[in-house]
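User: For my dataset I need records formatted as: sequence, then structure tokens, nothing else. Please produce one.
Assistant:
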Amino acid sequence: MMRKIFWDLDGTILDIRQRLYRLFCELTDTQIGFEKYWQLKEAGYNQAKMLSYIGSTVEKKEFHTIWLANVERMGLLHYDTLQPGIKEILADLFSGGYAMYIVTNRQCLENVKKQLYHLGINSFFKNIITTEQKCTKAEAVKQQGINAAGGIFIGDSKEDMQAALELNCEAIYLGKKLDVDMPGLKLIGCGEEAYGILNLKNNLRL
């Protein structure tokens, strides 16, 4: 039986920082610098705090609704790039016989398919699973009738690690800091994104 690998998309396979930064500037008509924007985000600023920082009077709920309606536009998705070395890793895993799946909170499946085709990595994945912002990632996988037990879940968020736990998968965490207690989580790799991507082959024993 082929071992399964479940990949988060945004932030794990793709560097989406330019897309999110450009959308924020577009919606707020502000010229906050790219480095400053991400400095604040990494310091824990959510959308409400970001709006307050730039002096915006837009209501948080209204902004979030507009954000979700625009964040997956094809014109913005073109700003996403592959994380360094990830295409080689995906190719090696595919050649090694792993069954790989994308599990993402994206809302539009068709745009995900178009983007992965454009980036030249669509053929590596057996299926693309989207929550459409309606359920958790673990629930989305279960709804597809996929037995994920014994697989590996790779991601950069607490939600990804929660999905690994609920699906009985081993986990590789590529975020900056995993500051949550998850008894039973089978963590086989952990580190900041740049560091984690470079060491992913070792974590997967390639």
